[in-house]
Write a structure and sequence with these properties.
Helix content of chain A: over 70%
Strand order of the largest sheet of chain B: 5-6-7-3-8-9
Strand content of chain A: under 5%
Shape of chain A: globular
Helix content of chain B: 25-40%
Order of helices and strands of chain A: HHHHHHHHHHHH
CATH topology of one domain in chain B: Rossmann fold
Strand content of chain B: 15-25%
Number of helices of chain A: 12
Distance between the termini of chain B: 55 Å
Number of domains of chain A: 1
Number of helices of chain B: 9
Structural class of chain A: mainly alpha
Bound molecules: adenosine-5'-triphosphate, magnesium ion
Oligomer: heterodimer
CATH class of chain A: Mainly Alpha
Radius of gyration of chain A: 18 Å
CATH architecture of chain A: Orthogonal Bundle
CATH superfamily of chain A: ABC transporter involved in vitamin B12 uptake, BtuC
Distance between the termini of chain A: 36 Å
Largest interface: A-B, 26 and 28 residues
CATH superfamily of one domain in chain B: P-loop containing nucleotide triphosphate hydrolases
Structural class of chain B: alpha/beta
CATH topology of chain A: ABC transporter involved in vitamin B12 uptake, BtuC
Shape of chain B: globular
């Protein structure tokens, strides 16, 4: 593994993986506690639609997928906000529409696209320097949002009390959704659309099982998320396995430990 | 000083296209204890939410110490909602929930001072022993005590309680009146409390607001809670039970 780190693409893979793993595990504690597990999946499908559009336009897929997914996320929150529909329903609609659009976009482009497969299953070793910069920007933005933790947590525990205390819960819902959307798109590059939701759900779920305090859960989740990426990458390199699925299996091992040693 | 702490003028509230409250007007003097009474669906909870700025009024004005509800500092109001939006799966300790009272944020960690303050409030509410229990696993009455502790711990000028006795045992209910009254003496706070307990209102409240989608009466308990108004609102004059009336089993 040490000699592997001499390779620039391995270093990029490690850094991008660690950053996106940590950010996803951080945001994931809110995803899990707000019962939004399905949100990650829905946005992954939106990301697929965006990637397909990017491929069709001949643009860098990520640059198209980010605004596309962001729009889907904000629309989901907006529909939930303005109608009596629950998140799940709004997500279900956006899920199907994005997928339908994605398939149509891909069919419009006559030739077979290898790129689309990369996004479907991810390929952390294909992280470009540009991808890495986007990931760093995401991590920096997440650091800037750390002060919102107390507000987001409060609004998660009891939204009515938070509103009575004048917290801008509606605006915060949009901010959180936007952050999750961008994280999902970037994570899609690393683990692939099919598995990306795990990044948002498994580390926080494992952490939830191991503690009775939300602050501890948050810390544990980030630690589990980061360690899983590190261990997963090493394992995948040593055993010559695909990196995304290996990372997820390491997360799953933490989850199993959580179920076994739950408090 | 008998300034009006809360002033409500010709207020109307519409929810989902229906008029829930109309023609509501009353003035509450500082440090009074107002019981809000009315049948289910009368709009009692809605009125409290309007006072908190949680629902908008479609007509009329509400001022609290001269300020519109949405503009009053959150720390002025200690609110115990009727229906708790609490997420029972959230990893929260009871004491952390109490600490959101003074801080209006979820605590990352509780410092010694914050912890002592929260424990004091929990003790007042008779819930000190459950401070470190997961909030999601508390019984209904225990949770109600935690919410009461939370409301008082921020030392509000206005206490807005939506059926605070719901779920409390007999001792808990007596404790609750005791807490409210001793807090009120100390801080000269103004209390509004929704209750279905007419007797409690007669004994403890300085004023009663009788509500049934509109304002039926406002004033001292003895004048408002008379046979005629109660008949008008509830179609029923008292709440003595059939057994004690002794007519059922004859
Ligand atoms: N969001 C809403 N949309 C439409 N109608 C609503 C909404 N919220 C409440 N209502 C209606 O407003 C009326 C008053 O409700 P409210 O909760 O204020 O009653 P209440 O006096 O507190 O009753 P209870 O004693 O049962 O607690 C009810 O008929 C209710 O159906
Ligand atoms: Mg009510």
């Amino acid at each position: 593994m040490i000699e592997a780190l001499a390779l620039p693409f391995m270093r990029r893979a490690l850094e991008a993986g660690l950053l996106v793993g940590a950010v996803a595990s951080y945001l994931g504690v809110f995803v899990v506690q707000r019962g939004l597990g399905f949100f990650g999946d829905g946005l992954a499908h939106a990301a697929f639609g965006g990637v397909a559009l990017g491929i069709l336009l001949g643009a860098e897929p990520l640059w198209v997928a980010i605004p596309f997914t962001l729009a889907a996320a904000l629309m989901i929150v907006w529909v939930r906000d303005r109608t009596a529909l629950k998140y799940d329903t709004a997500i279900g609609v956006s899920f199907a529409v994005s997928m339908a659009l994605g398939i149509i976009f891909l069919s419009l482009r006559q030739e077979y696209s290898r790129d689309a497969l990369t996004y479907l299953f991810g390929s952390i070793l294909a992280v470009t320097p540009a991808d890495l910069w986007i990931t760093r920007a995401l991590a920096a933005a997440s650091l800037c949002m750390l002060p919102l933790w107390g507000r987001w947590a409060y609004a998660t525990v009891d939204p009515e009390l938070a509103r009575a205390d004048r917290l801008p819960t509606r605006r915060d819902d949009y901010i959180l959704a936007a952050a999750i959307a961008i994280t999902v798109v970037i994570a899609v590059k690393v683990v692939g659309m099919v598995l990306v939701a795990a990044f948002l759900v498994i580390p926080p779920a494992a952490a939830r099982l191991l503690t009775r305090r939300f602050a501890t859960m948050t810390l544990l989740s980030v630690v589990i998320g980061a360690i899983s990426v590190l261990a997963g990458l090493i394992l995948s390199y040593q055993c010559d396995l695909p990196s995304g699925p290996t990372i997820i299996l390491v997360q799953a091992a933490f989850f199993a430990a959580g179920v076994t040693f739950r408090r | 000083m008998t300034a009006n702490a809360i002033s409500v003028r010709d207020v109307e509230v519409r929810l989902g296209g229906a008029t829930v409250l109309s023609d509501i007007s009353f003035d509450i003097r500082e440090s009074s204890f107002v019981a809000i009474i009315g049948p289910n669906g009368a709009g009692k909870s809605t009125l409290l939410k309007a006072l908190l700025g949680l629902v908008d009024t479609s007509r009329g004005t509400i001022t609290i110490d001269g300020i519109a509800p949405r503009d009053i500092p959150a720390a002025w109001a200690g609110y115990v909602p009727q229906v708790k939006a609490l997420d029972r799966d959230f990893p929260a300790l009871a004491i952390e929930l109490v600490a959101t009272g003074p801080h209006a944020r979820w605590p990352w960690r509780l410092g010694a001072e914050a912890r002592a303050h929260a424990l004091e409030a929990l003790e007042l509410a008779g819930a000190k022993h459950i401070a470190d229990r997961p909030a999601g696993r508390l019984s209904g009455g225990e949770l109600q005590r935690v919410y009461l502790a939370r409301a008082f711990s921020r030392e509000p000028k206005f206490i807005l309680l939506d059926e605070p006795a719901a779920g409390l045992d007999v001792a808990g209910e007596a404790d609750m009146y005791h807490i409210i009254e001793s807090y009120q003496r100390k801080h000269r706070a103004t209390v509004m409390m929704i209750t279905h307990d007419w007797d409690g209102a007669r004994i403890h409240a300085s004023d009663v607001l009788l509500l049934n989608r509109t304002n039926i009466g406002f004033g001292p308990p003895d004048t408002v809670l008379n046979d005629q108004t109660l008949l008008q609102v509830f179609g029923h004059k008292g709440h003595t039970h059939p057994k004690t009336e002794g007519t059922r089993h004859d």
